[in-house]
Amino acid sequence: MSIRLVGILVGLFFVATVLLWSLVPGVVTVVGQGFLVEETAEREFHLDPKHVEFQHDGVLGTWDYAQLQRGYKVYKEVCAACHGLELVAFRNLAQLGYSEGQVKAEAATWQVPGIDPNTGEATMREAEPTDHFPSPYPNDVAARAANNGKIPPDLSLITKARHHGTDYVYSLLTGYTDASAYVNEDGERLASVFPEALPQPGNYFNPYYSGLNIGMAPPLVVDNQVTFDDGTTATVSQMSQDIAAFLTWTAEPTLVERKQTGWPVLGFLLFATVLAWFAKKQVWSNVKGKRAKHREA
Ligand code: HEC
To answer: Residue 225, class by beta-carbon neighbours within 10 Å (0-12 exposed, 13-18 middle, 19+ buried)?
Structure first.
């Protein structure tokens, strides 16, 4: 056997080993996920978020300021009782179309922790535009104690922290339903297949929540729970969309600018490409001309 053949065989052996090495774990995972993982209530009954259209969607999306202002009102009058918004400052509200005076007046309607200038004691004071939205609880222990052992998360980044966050918030708020009558797409009844997955006291069934039972009572339950200043009818669905849009803004206030900067960049690249094309023609024109002459000669 020639040495070259041996070399090829040894090489093939190594390639085959490496391929198997990388293939086997993958196959095991795929097979495992398909057949071996046990069926759980979450796997069988959890729902992906519903799709909702928003003006800020897509590459040409823009904020719907009226909607963001309505969403802020829903936050203030409903969600703020339990959820903080600690990454947002009152002055950021100016981006929603409020004037400086309005922002100041709005901030003053909130109380934030402060210090008494005379005694040094902890106290509450009116918020300034530079303050951030306060957490409704002094600490996690208090938050837990007030909510059956669950902590209401800060909502500043929640639409980034969940898959399809905007749709998720909308779906969660409109997704509460009666667990005992709940049937999934395959017609299976939760109460018959997984009776242990029915909500315990202090929990509420919601198929859009990862664990199916959430420690938050439905916060938006009746139409006109919030009165919108712009005359929009405050159905539960409308309020849920508006707060979802507002929480998209809190999580990424520069979303629209980010999309808009893309266009000038693309335009510039296109322009640069055209320039480069002409430059190339210019630079090579002589060379090609000479070659053509050579051939003639
Ligand atoms: C009475 C208190 C209370 C109110 C009012 C309330 N929530 Fe909650 N919320 C909670 C608690 C408690 C949790 C944590 C639940 C858990 O961990 O099971 C929670 C969790 C959440 C979550 C996180 C779900 C997840 O995927 O982890 C979102 C989003 C949310 N609330 C949005 C809202 C919005 C929007 C409003 C206003 C329309 C609101 N909440 C009003 C108590 C409240």
So the answer is: middle
For residues 291 and 297, what is the distance between their CA atoms, to the nearest angstrom?
10
Q: Angle between the 165-174 and 236-251 helix axes, to the nearest 10 degrees?
A: 150
Work out the number of other CB atoms within 10 angstroms of the CB of residue 266.
10
Q: Taking the model in full, what pTM does it have?
A: 0.84
Check residue 39 and give its pLDDT. Answer: 83
On the CB side of 235, CA atoms within 13 Å amount to 5
Nearest to 216 by CA among 229, 225, 203, 226: 203
Q: Say how many Å lie between the CA of residue 4 and the centre of ligand 1.
A: 69
Give dist(CA 71, CA 245) in Å, integer: 7
Pocket of ligand 1 (CB under 6 A): 74, 78-79, 81-83, 147, 150, 152-153, 158, 162, 169, 172-173, 214-216, 219-220, 243
| Calpha distance 237→170 (Å, rounded) | 8
Q: Which residue's CA is the nearest one to ligand 1's atom 33?
A: 79
Confidence of residue 195 (pLDDT cuts 50, 70, 90): very high
- Quick check: 275 pLDDT over 60? yes
Identify the residue whose tokens are 């938006």: 220
- List the one residue out of 208, 224, 222, 210 whose CA is nearest residue 176: 208
2 versus 153: which is more confidently predicted? 153
**Cα 169 to ligand 1 centre (Å):** 10
Neighbouring C-beta atoms of residue 183, cutoff 10 Å: 13
